[in-house]
UniProtKB/TrEMBL annotation:
InterPro entries: Glyas_Bleomycin-R_OHBP_Dase (IPR029068), Glyoxy/Ble-like_N (IPR053863), VOC_core (IPR037523)
Superkingdom as given in the UniProt entry: Bacteria
Pfam families: Ble-like_N (PF22677)
Organism, scientific name: Mucilaginibacter yixingensis
Protein's recorded name: VOC domain-containing protein
Organism phylogeny: Bacteria, Pseudomonadati, Bacteroidota, Sphingobacteriia, Sphingobacteriales
Domain VOC: 3-127
Gene3D superfamilies documented for this protein: 2,3-Dihydroxybiphenyl 1,2-Dioxygenase, domain 1
Amino acid sequence: MATMIFMNIPVKDLDRSKAFFASLGYTFNPQFSNEQGACMVVSDTIFYMLLTEPFFKSFIDKEVADATKANECINCLSVESREGVDEIIAKAKAAGARIPEEPTDYGFMYSQGFEDLDGHLWNYVWMDPNGKPEHQ
């Protein structure tokens, strides 16, 4: 069995977050979703659990980070093409995401990111399978 990833992130408004990520093309597994959290399907092995802040807090003994004020991590996901990066960024922007920077283009790798409705950072990257970085 392949290792699966279940990233848990706190959200202020579960329905609003679900609508945002659905507009990017993600689906949700109703078997693992309720009024406290939703299981967002990224791939066969990658899932994001969007958890209401009170429910997220029940799993930790620290304060929940305010992602609009401090970055706790950057969620980076690969896509099939350069155009795929641009498409998901355009969808995110249309759904209310903040786009903090222009795309980065290294030739063999192309990426850009956004800040979601709760301030979490997401980056989407395409890498040329035949390309390689040039070392300086």
